[in-house]
Amino acid sequence: MIQRKYKTRGAARSGPRASEARPRGRGLRLALAAAALTLGLTCLCACGQEEEAAEEPTSYELALITNEVGVNDGSFNQSTWTAMQTFCEENGLSCQYYPSDDESYMKAIREASRQGAKLIILAGSQMETTAFEAQDKYGDLKFVLIDGVPRDEKFNYKTAGNSTGVLFAEQEAGYLAGYAAVTEGYTRLGYMGGDALPPVKRYGYGFIQGAAAAANELGKNDIQIRYTYLGTFEASDEIESEAYDWYSDNKCQVIFACGGSIGESIMAAAESAGGKVIGVDADQSSQSETVITSAKKETGKAITDILKNYKRNNFDGGAILNYSAENGGIGLEMTNARMEVFTQETYDKVFEEIKSGNRKIIKDIEDKDISTLETDEVKIEMVEE
Prior knowledge:
Layout: E1 3-6, H1 25-39, E2 62-66, H2 76-91, E3 95-99, H3 105-114, E4 119-123, H4 128-137, E5 142-146, E6 163-168, H5 170-183, E7 188-193, H6 198-218, E8 223-229, H7 237-248, E9 254-258, H8 262-273, E10 276-281, E11 291-297, H9 299-311, E12 319-323, E13 330-332, H10 344-356, E14 378-384
């Protein structure tokens, strides 16, 4: 049976580690950087240009709306923005990004429209209801929702003619990450997700299934997975401290850090405790020597495909685009991987089996308990935040 532990973030910790002196400066720098980014909402960055506060507002054809973390999360937001910038630079277009919180997405859309946006990309499934409202309210604008499909509060889905929804098979990328971790020899795995949104859940479900498949094929029956959703995509000292405990108590050898900037905190903990990390969304190997690989979704490919059609006056309005192993939309970082046992040959074999449909991967367990994914080889400890 699944074990459940209930915790309150920020509560005082007891035991020896509560008094251990660990590096905290990185968490403070992250907090200050996040604060600076939030304060800079009115000083938004143009594609390929340095901002000048004294300049009059400039017209930008393409706009990106992100959560308040912004485009320097080293993950999903950043890879989306980089793809936009690259396309604009190569095609003579202009772009701008607008970091915003959950209450201000529509305000950011209004501002982008005021500054001349013709196409607005919304980054994240948390903006599904925003996309639903905006596609009707701004019928003269085009919208692209990455990681979701426009819906109302009652989960009635509608993709209007001026909108496109983009989905990824995160469960396939997560499967590859779990398979690689067990093949590499790790038996105590961790999964720390951000908000419990569908893409984050799919990564986690796939991770468990991949670990179970590798364990079964290798004849291992001692795989333990510690699993939680942190309820945020932002880095913090509290997350770093929690990840440190997961590593130092020998509960986890490697943690799949699945949630934007929370990876910064988990990497800091891994550096202090001697643990390893699996990155998410993009190749995160340059962020820390502790990153052994990254589960990737090819956001850049999706952005480029959509913007190419937009520039040809052939926008994919009313469509829901799906990116998976079948069309090269997901993968596992191998070029900059720090693994010895899980080889390129093994990766290619498993990837092709996923692509062909020979490996069946569940992407959704609906309202069932996550213990339904347990097997004889893999046991799960769910930590409730």
